[in-house]
Design brief:
Low-confidence stretches: none
Shape: globular
Structural class: alpha/beta
Number of strands: 17
Number of helices: 8
CATH superfamily: Glycoside hydrolase/deacetylase
Number of domains: 1
Length: 265
Amino acid sequence: MRSFCFTVDVDRDANIPVPGMSQAGSYNRGLGTAPRFRSSGEGIGTLTGILDEMGVRATYFAEARTLSKIGAQHLEGREVGIHGFDHEDFTGTFPPGGKKELLKRACEAVEDLTGKRPRCSRMPYMKISEDIPPILSEIGIRYDSSQYQDMDKEVMPYVLGGVVEVPVPVTRDASEKKIVGYLWPMHEGKRPPGDYVRMASRMENGIFTLATHSWHMSERIDGGYVTKQDAKANENNLREVIAGILDMGFKAETLPDAAERFGVR
């Protein structure tokens, strides 16, 4: 039994940590590191269009500030979780109660914008400290995807501090080079789509979670905003990955549906 969870981090363009601040900025394109949202707004429309075309029910982890800037029109009726309020590093130092307050605010903002209370989360930077899962559970989050797990024929969900954790797989490719279930290297032109299809082919049982960023459809860290030709190639690469995984018989599901199908709820 194999599930395929396609996940999208909807966050500020080319996000980077900014020294001395808990909020993230955007990669400096010559105008400083203030957060930008243009690429994320463009990219989410492209992504949802491709996923709808291919019949893939995805899970979106929306950073509250970004969603308030780009709007939630493309996410109506979809599984939308939280991704921090300002893409904070929640392993850092916060005042007493500060983490819970920010995560609660993120939930409320996403609910206000989408009309539906979020039940999923992914911590920014894929960093989750041991105090976070109980907080997530307290504010109504039931499913999380903020950890990596080595993939040896299967990756299964598990309970982590009161929430169901659906990890992102990590393994080695044919050249013994580390490969992670994030499409970042493909969008940057450093890995072909087939690498991710071959990665999925090694899974015999469990949930294959694949992740990308909305902004990465329109912008690269290395090279800046993509041309129309490169954007089209980017879209076709994504289609190739998804089609290759579906052709192997994986069932495309949201994070909660996949976790429940494997008996973890």
